Fold:
Amino acid sequence: QVQLVESGGGSVQAGGSLRLSCAASGYIYKGYCMAWFRQAPGKEREGIATIASDGSTTYADSVKGRFTSSKDNAENTLYLQMNNLKPEDTAMYYCAAVPRYGRCYWSIGYSSWGQGTQVTVSS
Structure:
């Protein structure tokens, strides 16, 4: 089970950008589904991006076209580039991982979770 540590959150104005990082303690290049989730106060956790072992990505409609997930295989790090941020993007952001080949889904049981990093977007 890999250990995950997120960083890069902060406060920005609407229209700004942030890049979140998720450093993994182990090898995540192959054989893992990686995902980003977020949870705003009083709301359910929402899956927003996945990146599969082959590098293919999926995005929630709420972030499609604005957020990009990528992996740095040499650094065992997952990234979430967030552009054109909106106040409704304000939430705690988490990365997650599970050993799995093939397509990734937000509904699968992710076995490793980071501690979260807060993103606050002001209007």
Summary: The CA atoms of residues 18 and 97 lie 21 Å apart. The first strand starts at residue 4 and ends at 7. The chain has a mean pLDDT of 94.
